[in-house]
Design a protein that fits this description.
The chain is α+β, with helices and mostly antiparallel strands and 664 residues long.
């Protein structure tokens, strides 16, 4: 008889235990797949577990059961939102993914004392009988009630509302007949089934309530829907208010937690955008995606001529030294916005409603227009030059954009952007060049050493503290540029001052952005030092530094537009943004152009270094005015600054609560 070694017996025991444990885990996972709810984990724990439903909302709770979700519904709040209309909530950039507060309610009757907020109330309704139901909604101020034909959020339909006519309607508690839209048609529901619902509610001022009632097949009057007949969509009660745990960005419309009425609005916006946009505009995807004509392919068309505009300040000159503090940015060429464009762009449409304090005409006007005659002359002259130099290789398809900078002393500079057909390659291409017409001549030249670099790396700089909601919005907006243009030549550098409401590195890791970096800093928020530290990590002198703000909505051509207006050793760029007023969004803008700010600034890294960068010492204990100081030194160091209003470039109104070193 053979005797087994005790160690061998022990090894077999351990081996069998491991096998049994693995089998148990596999069976548990298989069991999880059959459930309708999902595991939710913290973004700040280990890497979250993906579920079969591909949910992308993360919290700190345990697996849910039907019983655990009963008798309450989810309530999400967005504070500091102006306006009476539900559309003010729906169009807010942080809706629906980033609520300021999370709560629950036992029944569909909420009374509040707050003002200037929006809310989303959502979950499931469980009818106790089968038959025809009628629903009604009452609110102060406006509201919408969306109900699905089943438990799928993608099947919701609007069945009742207050305030879809003027946006300023309201009703009293238990008042369901003030407006015809308050009541639904008869809707067939079945007992023992559940139906997803979504309520949007916008409150501006005055009394505050939201109430949803139903008339069951066996009743004859409306009664508030109570806790007995509702359940939550998911449990986010353990999520701390003010924290951002969200894993997804708004460009991905596959997410289950995105209300389908928001999807409908987004799709409608896309249809309007495409129907109203002519083919090949300077900020359109079709133009940006065209293959470029390299300057080397057209350089023989014109001679080169030295270009030095009359407003250029010689570096270290007596003129520079005598200008005094902020003297350069107050020069007429920079104080005013002198560049003209052709054809007319959307900047005029953006300010149909110009809202703000102490406004001047430059705050409310779009870009100045060049004449049609000038545009046709420049285009025709240049195309003739191309024909002489390259025979019939390039044929004009469309004049997309011309920018004109008039100089009464030296002559005029143009940026000409065309769609041309390349007869050699049999394709359409994008041609974008700077041209110079000296004073008292009718000849065009290429300005010497003044062409933009088509593939320059653009480094976006942004610094944050406790702006988790807006970090998501910023990344979402900049990601759209990458996804729709396939432009990989930009890099995001984000400096974070110990934000407790977001893990920016984790959010960026989950984003589609190809290049990014997070710099973690401790102590009080200090913008100037944060910018300078971020720039110091850039090693390529031939790349562009682009200072930005976190509360922005970017147009598709933002990166390309920056490259186009930054010329190494010659020119930096300050695109003017539109500051949206409270309650307005990019789809219905109202506000004013930021005519006097230099906070958004593009400049080559070599030029940045040559002027000394941000003055960290001067703004060591405070910040505000550092943008003017920087722009002033750029001009005094012999580099001009191009200033132009950029269509679809918006700064969102936001509360300062929780910003920088403030507490929530």
């Amino acid at each position: 008889m053979l005797h087994q070694n005790p160690l061998t017996r022990l090894s077999l025991t351990v081996y069998c235990s491991v096998i049994l444990l693995l089998l148990f885990l596999i069976l548990s996972l298989l069991d999880m797949k059959t459930k309708n709810h999902f595991v939710i984990v913290s973004l700040f724990r280990n890497k979250p577990v993906k579920t079969t439903l591909e949910r992308h909302v993360f919290s700190i709770v345990q697996p849910e059961t039907e019983e655990h979700l009963k008798y309450k519904v989810n309530v999400h709040y967005w504070d500091f939102i102006c306006g009476f209309n539900v559309e003010n909530l729906r169009s807010h950039p942080l809706f629906p993914f980033s609520p300021y507060r999370r709560d629950t309610t036992n029944d569909l009757f909420i009374r509040q004392t707050d003002v200037k907020f929006g809310a989303r109330v959502f979950g499931y309704i469980h009818p106790n009988e089968t038959g025809l139901f009628k629903f009604a909604i009452s609110s102060d101020d406006c509201s919408e009630f969306w109900l699905s034909q089943d438990e799928d959020p993608l099947h919701v339909q609007l069945i009742g509302s207050v305030g879809r006519t003027t946006g300023k309607e309201w009703s009293y508690i238990d008042q369901f007949d003030k407006y015809i839209e308050q009541k639904s048609r008869d809707i067939f529901l079945q007992k023992d089934r559940k139906y997803f619902f979504d309520i949007l509610w916008k409150q501006q001022r005055g009394r505050t309530h939201l109430q949803v009632a139903w008339m069951t097949p066996t009743s004859h009057q409306f009664e508030t829907i109570t806790s007995k007949f509702v359940s939550k969509y998911y449990d986010d009660s353990d999520m701390e208010n003010g924290l951002v745990y969200l894993d997804h960005l708004k460009f991905d419309f596959r997410q289950q937690d995105l209300p389908s009425h928001v999807k409908q609005i987004e799709k409608m916006k896309e249809r309007i955008l495409h129907s109203n946009t002519a083919l090949f505009t300077r900020d359109s995807r079709d133009f940006l995606s065209l293959p470029r004509v390299r300057f080397s392919e057209v350089r023989e068309a014109l001679l080169f001529k030295t270009y030095k505009p009359s407003w250029l300040i010689k570096r270290n000159s007596s003129e520079a030294k005598n200008l005094g503090t902020y003297g350069a940015v107050h020069l007429p060429h920079y104080y005013n916005i002198t560049t003209k464009i052709f054809p007319k762009d959307e900047t005029w449409a953006h300010t149909k409603e110009c809202v703000g304090e102490s406004l001047k005409p430059m705050h409310c006007e779009g870009n100045m227009l060049a004449t049609d005659e000038t545009a046709q002359w420049v285009t025709g002259k240049y195309m003739n030059a191309l024909k002489l130099a390259y025979a019939k290789r390039y044929v004009l398809v469309k004049l997309v954009n011309m920018e004109e900078e008039n100089d009464e002393l030296k002559g005029d500079r143009y940026l000409l952007e065309l769609v041309v057909k390349d007869n050699h390659l049999k394709i359409l291409r994008r041609l974008s060049v700077y041209l110079f017409r000296p004073i008292h001549t009718s000849s065009l030249y290429y300005p010497k050493k003044f062409q933009w670099k088509k593939n320059a790396m653009v480094n976006l700089i942004v610094s944050v503290k406790n702006q988790g909601f807006w970090v998501h919005q910023y990344i979402q907006s900049i990601s759209k540029i990458y996804l729709q243009t396939n432009d990989t030549r930009f890099n995001l550098i984000l400096t974070d001052f110990e934000s407790f409401d977001v893990d920016a590195e984790e959010v960026l890791r989950r984003s589609p952005l190809p290049h990014w970096k997070v710099i973690r800093k401790t102590g009080h928020f200090h913008k100037t030092s944060a910018i300078q530290e971020a720039v110091s990590t850039i090693t390529d002198p031939d790349s562009i530094v682009l200072q930005t703000d976190v509360h922005l909505e970017f147009p598709l051509n933002f990166i390309d537009d920056t490259r186009k207006h930054c010329v190494k050793g010659k020119m930096g760029y300050t695109p003017l943004l539109m500051r949206l007023t409270c309650g307005r969004s990019s789809d219905k803008p109202a506000g004013f152009w930021e005519a006097f700010g230099y906070g958004i600034f593009g400049l080559y890294k070599s030029d940045w270094d040559s002027i000394g960068g941000m003055d960290v010492e001067k703004f060591k204990n405070s910040w505000g005015g550092e943008d003017w100081d920087f722009a002033d030194r750029v001009i005094k160091n012999g580099i001009e600054i191009e200033r132009l209003r950029l269509p679809f470039f918006f700064h969102y109104f936001h509360t300062r609560k929780g910003m920088w070193d403030a507490k929530y």
